[in-house]
Every structure is written in C-alpha cells, then in structure tokens.
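We treat protein structure as text, and this decision shapes the records that our systems exchange. The remainder of this section carries one protein's record, kept here as part of the documentation:
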Amino acid sequence: MAVSVVIETKGLTKVYESALRGQDVCALKDLNLETHAGEIFGYLGPNGSGKTTTIKLLLGLIFPTSGEMKILGSKHIGASNIKRQIGYLPEGAYYPDFLRGEEVLEFYGHLYGMGGKHLRRRIDEVLETVGMSRARKRLVGAYSKGMRQRIGLAQALLSDPQILILDEPTTGLDPIARKEIRDILAQLRTQGKTLLISSHELLEVELISNRVGILFEGHLQTSGALDELLTERDITITVEGVSPQALAKLAEHKIAPEDQVETRAVLRLPAGMPLYTALDLCKSEQIRIVSVMPRRETLEELFVRVVGAAEQRARAAVAA
C-alpha cells in the first residue's frame, strides 16, 4: 500500500552543544512537519533558521536531541532500503573537473551499489531526463553552472528514489537555466516523485510548489497549501498621467505606487479602502485610469509578513 505521508517529524529538536557554558544553540525546536506523496514542498526560512539542520537530520548525517522522524512510514531512516529511496542534491555540489559527466554518474552509481547493465541503463535514463545526453562525454570542467546542476540532479535520480531533497537547486542560475530546472522538477512531480526543496528563490518555489513551510529561528511559523496561505488580497489600479503632486495627494490617503515608469504607475490600495473611493480620488487629481485588477499576495510577501511578525515577537520577548 502506498504511503501518503512520505516525510513526517514530530517534536523534532536539535541542540548543538558547546563546550562553553550557556553557548548551546537550539537550531530546531519541536518541528512537526509532513510532506505528502507526489507533491513539491517548499521549505523556506532566513539563513540560520534551521533548514539545513532539518535536511541533515532527514539524511541521517546528524542525530536529533529529541523528537522523532519517519520516512515512508519507517522510523529506521538509516536503513539501506530507506536511504535508497532518497535522492539528495546539496547546495553548491562539487564534482571533479577532470571527470566526464557520465563518469560522475558511474562513480555515484557504484556508491549506491549499482553496476553492470542496470547502472548503464539508469545513466542513460537520468541523462535523458535532465537533458544532458549530448553532453555526457564532456568534462565537468567545461560545464556551465546550469549543466553542473543538471548533472547533480541526475546523480540524485540515479537510484530512482521516491523522495528528492534539493538544497537551493536554482540559486545562481540565469533565467533560462532556472526555467529549465523548474520544468524538470515539475516533470518529476508528475512521475510521482516527492520533492522537498529548500530555497531562497521564492518566485521559483511559488511557481511549482503545492505546499510550503516557513521556519524562523528553528520554529515552524506556518505550513500549508499555497492556495490556503496566500489569502491576503488587494486591488491595484493602473493609471496614466500621474504627477509628483498627484502622488503626494494620494499618499495622504495611503495609496502608494507599487511601480512607476514616467507618468504611468500601478497604484496599490490600502486594506479596507473601497475601490470607488480610490477611483474618485484619482479622478479628482485628473489621473486617467487604465485598468483595475484584483491581486493576490505573493509568496515573497507572505514570507516577509510571517518572518517579520516572528521577529517582532522575538524582540518583544527579549524586551520583556
């Protein structure tokens, strides 16, 4: 029977102990997290929030201070049959420049215990999946950063795992390479893979993720489906013929330009302001209205809102 929850943590806590009294660091505190089968889960948070610690725990590279983890329903995450079901792409993965692309995969295949015709077939399949078949015999030293990421992704796919854990898979890539990697990840989801992606590229995460979780200082602040979390909505008005004087007048009513090029601007209405009030204000300033559009909160705005609120609570706790 297929497992619907492929990664589950309950009360997961990790404290890095220090030799100095009072210098212990609680990197993760009471993490309750679920990743479902066949989804892309965006795991987000500022630097130092606990994302990398979580990944190391799931991979069995470090051990929790308390709490429990289950992968594919099993608590024995160090078992070989569980490890074979996890593919991992670390941030900034390094592969020797003197090796060819297919040789990198041969090396990792042997680490997985693969060999012979089965390994050669899997190398062919994963190179085709990531679009690197034609570059398989080129030296890694001649690869672009995007090509290195593709080889890294091919390495993570080599054992045909059910779960992929990807750390910053698109960071530093140009827009075309980011889209190509994004398309590959979406294709893997349609094949039934489950992806946990840790990333600071929030637009990329928003475009492909089903659900997200946001960490701050080791605490999970929120988690859920994007359609449920991105609930704050507002209205934007695109206008022509705005002047500095008119913008100053609108600012008195907390209507601010979200974007402006010369005399054309996109105005964002403050929460609670009726649309017709804003339209009347624009007309009174002789501003021509081009369009009125509803607008959903972006993942970046959700991230800033959630992390900002968490920072305020932390400061208030220190002050108290």
